[in-house]
Design brief:
A hairpin with a 3-residue loop joins β2 and β3. The chain is globular. α1 packs antiparallel against α2 and α2 packs antiparallel against α4. It has an 8-stranded mixed sheet. The chain has helices spanning about 35-50, 55-75, 105-110, 125-130, and strands spanning about 1-10, 15-20, 25-30, 80-90, 95-100, 135-140, 145-150, 165. About 30% of the residues lie in helices and about 30% in strands.
């Protein structure tokens, strides 16, 4: 197991980044700061590449959207709150989880309801992107822990065009 911890101040804000990596799982806990999302995405890309994945962009895109939602909407940009992220191989799939300390949201309505068609809006497209690039998307009952089921390359998926997604109507796989 490889572990890395960073704690310090950034621009007057407390900044924390903790990573645990084994051969089969990556776990990261970080302060709700936008620049930490880039660090998590870099770690996830390296982890996937070391596991033999060659096409990581679709997974990175879905993960980035989930992480952005956790920092901006879940934790409302409060750097005193943390986000937990994990990525692990589960048989023929990659399972990613992103959990924030927020109050949650009515995810079933948003995933199965009609999305706004306003492409100029500053928000509202993250769930669509995650659905487009994941096999399945669901949250815990509260709505503050995202679960993404992603294709692994050895399943024969090329990631091109995204995988058909089904929004889960219940908590858990």
């Amino acid at each position: 197991m490889e572990e890395r911890v960073f704690q310090g101040r950034r621009g007057g804000e407390e900044a924390m980044f903790q990573r645990k990596r084994t051969s089969g799982k990556l776990e990261i806990r970080f302060s709700s700061l936008l620049d930490r999302i880039d660090a998590v995405c870099r770690e996830a890309k390296v982890f996937l590449e070391r596991a033999g994945e060659r096409r990581t962009f679709p997974a990175e895109l879905a993960l980035r959207e989930g992480l952005l939602n956790a920092v901006l909407h879940g934790n409302k940009g409060d750097s005193g709150k943390t986000v937990r992220f994990s990525l692990e191989r589960r048989g023929r799939w990659w399972m990613a989880q992103v959990q924030d300390e927020g109050e949650g949201f009515p995810w079933r309505e948003r995933l199965t309801g009609k999305f706004r068609k306003d492409t100029l809006s500053e928000s509202g497209r993250g769930l669509l992107i995650m659905k487009s690039y994941s096999r399945a998307v669901w949250y815990n009952k509260k709505g503050n822990r995202l679960n993404l089921l992603l294709d692994a390359e050895d399943r024969g998926s090329s990631w091109e065009g995204g995988a058909p997604c089904r929004a889960r109507g219940r908590e858990g796989p």
